[in-house]
């Protein structure tokens, strides 16, 4: 009886390492909100990218160190809602949408609500969905589209009031992509522990070097291409377009993508 009580006590607690990365991502998202409120839009956009890095590390660290937990999964979802739901929506609103009145805050709300729905749907599909693909644009990638656009606009001196309607359209459409049925590569099938050819390492170094030249515009273009890849992959895999291929509860009639083609 005493051993059982000791075991229960031992199991209580929170794994430190993966949740440190989650907390860092949450802080970055919160910092992005505060920075955007103070007019520091470039810093806010960069903070969202930092949150993306932290979000990519916490799960992998948890799996590598065998420290997965239900608490960590829930905490990660809450942090993602702040960093990739609230923060990009508020950043977009403060940068370009506030002058549009109701249109501006509606576009920001569509994005924010879509991020919440996307995260909720993802949590209910864990263990049943094809791990090679995301159903809908992942919230970190959607946040990167918004943050990359604003980072590029701030870097190159774009006047937000001149593109406010375009910014509203991009914000709303990015949100709708999150709740769509379009298939996006998740890259979860990559063997990060495996060995690669030396040329692959040279290619990776080259990619980092290219990004370092103009990080704002290159990251922005990269995530725009990724956002557009979902409709392309999905529409390419079907013979006849149906509503269920784009939006709906059951995308099961979408045939799997054959990577060997």
TrEMBL record:
Keyword Metal-binding found: no
GO-annotated molecular function: CDP-diacylglycerol-serine O-phosphatidyltransferase activity
Keywords: Lipid biosynthesis, Lipid metabolism, Membrane, Phospholipid biosynthesis, Phospholipid metabolism, Transferase, Transmembrane, Transmembrane helix
Subcellular location: Endomembrane system
Bilayer disposition of the protein: Multi-pass membrane protein
Domain of life from the UniProt record: Bacteria
One Pfam family cited in the UniProt record for this chain: CDP-OH_P_transf
Catalytic activity: a CDP-1,2-diacyl-sn-glycerol + L-serine = a 1,2-diacyl-sn-glycero-3-phospho-L-serine + CMP + H(+)
EC identifiers of the protein: 2.7.8.8
Transmembrane segments: 12-34, 103-120, 132-151, 163-184, 196-227
Family annotation (InterPro entries): CDP-alcohol_PTase-I, CDP-diaglyc--ser_O-PTrfase, CDP-OH_P_trans, CDP-OH_PTrfase_TM_dom, CDP_ALCOHOL_P_TRANSF_CS
Signal peptide: none
PANTHER family, alphabetized: CDP-DIACYLGLYCEROL--GLYCEROL-3-PHOSPHATE 3-PHOSPHATIDYLTRANSFERASE-RELATED, CDP-DIACYLGLYCEROL--SERINE O-PHOSPHATIDYLTRANSFERASE
UniProt xrefs under NCBIfam families: pssA
Family in the record: Belongs to the CDP-alcohol phosphatidyltransferase class-I family.
Name of this chain's protein: CDP-diacylglycerol--serine O-phosphatidyltransferase
UniProt gene name: pssA
């Amino acid at each position: 009886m005493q051993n059982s009580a000791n075991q229960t006590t031992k199991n209580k607690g929170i794994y430190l390492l993966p949740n440190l990365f989650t907390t860092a991502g949450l802080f970055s998202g919160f910092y992005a909100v505060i920075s955007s409120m103070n007019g520091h839009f470039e810093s806010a956009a960069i903070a969202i990218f930092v949150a993306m890095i932290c979000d990519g590390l916490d799960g992998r660290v948890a799996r590598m160190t065998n420290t997965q937990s239900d608490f960590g999964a829930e905490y990660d979802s809450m942090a993602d809602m702040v960093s990739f739901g609230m923060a990009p929506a508020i950043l977009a609103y403060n940068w370009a949408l506030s002058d549009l009145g109701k249109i501006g805050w509606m576009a920001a709300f569509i994005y924010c609500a879509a991020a919440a729905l996307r995260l909720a749907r993802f949590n209910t599909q864990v263990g049943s969905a094809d791990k090679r693909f995301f159903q809908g644009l992942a919230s970190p990638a959607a946040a990167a589209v918004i943050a990359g656009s604003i980072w590029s606009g701030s870097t190159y001196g774009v006047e937000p009031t001149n593109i406010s309607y375009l910014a509203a359209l991009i914000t709303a459409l990015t949100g709708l992509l999150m709740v769509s049925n379009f298939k996006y590569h998740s890259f979860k099938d990559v063997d990060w522990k495996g060995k690669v050819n030396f040329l692959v390492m040279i290619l990776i170094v080259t990619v980092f070097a290219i990004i370092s030249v103009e990080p704002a515009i290159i990251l922005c273009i990269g995530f725009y291409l990724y956002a557009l890849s979902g409709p392309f992959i999905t529409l390419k895999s079907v013979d006849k377009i149906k509503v269920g291929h784009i939006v709906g509860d059951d995308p099961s009639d979408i045939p799997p993508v054959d990577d060997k083609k």
